[in-house]
């Protein structure tokens, strides 16, 4: 039996805001700019399964015959170069991914058939959505290599966390450090809330618990 992925479990208990603040403090890039959930109720946590797209050739290559290779609990990460005029994810992929217990899909580009993702509560985070197919417009160039998602580098196996505020990528080499700092930030913010409940002003509670240095980058 495989050992539980404790980093995944820890990340799932944290919001992207705490994780983002931790990454800022450590000077680690990973926030995926302008990549948003189809629905604010969507959440995802999982390891990256990466796909890189490029312009279609003649004859055209495939857009999406990789889905059977994605392990359960992983996140499909699709780098379509930010293209919003050619979708690379639709209803069949959503349905199969949901059946296979894939953790979600993140796209630097557009998706379509958004109604099914919402109906199944399958997490999709993308730059936009449209009805226009990517067939004969783009094709898979590489699987399992580094990709770019919203100006953040993602490698296969990196940890992704997404919620209502967006999605971020925690590089595997730094995940324990990022998670530890994020847990510290989360705990301090809870102590500030508790202090305000007990009668302190927010100004005094923040000062008492060092709030203003939480996101300060390490020298």
Q: Give the radius of gyration.
A: 19 Å
Low-confidence stretches: none
Round the mean pLDDT to the nearest integer and report it. 93
Tally of strands: 10
Derived from helix and strand composition plus strand pairing, the structural class reads alpha/beta
What is the H/E order? HHEEEHEHEEEEEEHH
- Helix amount, in percent? 25-40%
How many individual helices? Answer: 6
N-C termini distance: 42 Å
* Main sheet properties: 8 strands, mixed
**Shape call:** elongated
- β-strand amount: 25-35%
Any overview of this molecule?
- It is a single chain.
- This protein has 219 residues and is an alpha/beta fold.
- The protein has helices at residues 6-12, 16-26, 91-99, 114-120, 175-197, 202-208; strands at 36-37, 44-55, 74-79, 104-111, 124-129, 138-143, 147-149, 152-154, 159-163, 166-170.
- It starts with 5 loop residues before the first helix and ends in an 11-residue tail after the last helix.
- The strands form 2 sheets. Strands 1, 2, 3, 4, 5, 6, 9 and 10 form an 8-stranded mixed beta sheet that branches. Strands 7-8 form a two-stranded antiparallel ribbon.
- The longest helix has 23 residues, at 175-197.
- The chain contains 6 helices and 10 strands.
């Amino acid at each position: 039996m495989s050992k539980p992925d404790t980093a995944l479990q820890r990340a799932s208990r944290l919001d992207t805001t705490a994780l983002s603040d931790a990454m800022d403090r450590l000077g680690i890039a990973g926030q995926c700019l302008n990549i948003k959930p189809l629905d604010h109720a969507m959440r995802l946590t999982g390891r990256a399964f990466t796909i890189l797209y490029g312009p279609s050739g003649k004859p055209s290559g495939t857009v999406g015959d990789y889905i059977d290779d994605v392990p359960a609990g992983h996140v499909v990460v699709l780098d379509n170069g930010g293209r919003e005029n050619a979708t690379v994810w639709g209803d069949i992929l959503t349905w199969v991914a949901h059946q296979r217990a894939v953790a979600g899909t993140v796209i630097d580009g557009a998706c379509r058939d958004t109604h099914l993702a919402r109906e199944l509560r399958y997490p999709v985070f993308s730059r936009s959505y449209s009805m226009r197919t990517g067939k004969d417009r783009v094709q898979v160039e590489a699987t399992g290599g580094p990709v770019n998602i919203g100006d953040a580098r993602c490698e296969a196996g990196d940890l992704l966390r997404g919620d209502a505020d967006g999605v971020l990528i925690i590089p595997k080499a730094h995940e324990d450090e990022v998670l530890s700092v994020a847990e510290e930030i989360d705990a301090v913010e809870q102590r500030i809330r508790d202090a305000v409940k007990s009668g302190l002003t927010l100004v005094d509670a923040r000062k008492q618990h060092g709030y203003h240095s939480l996101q300060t980058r390490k020298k």
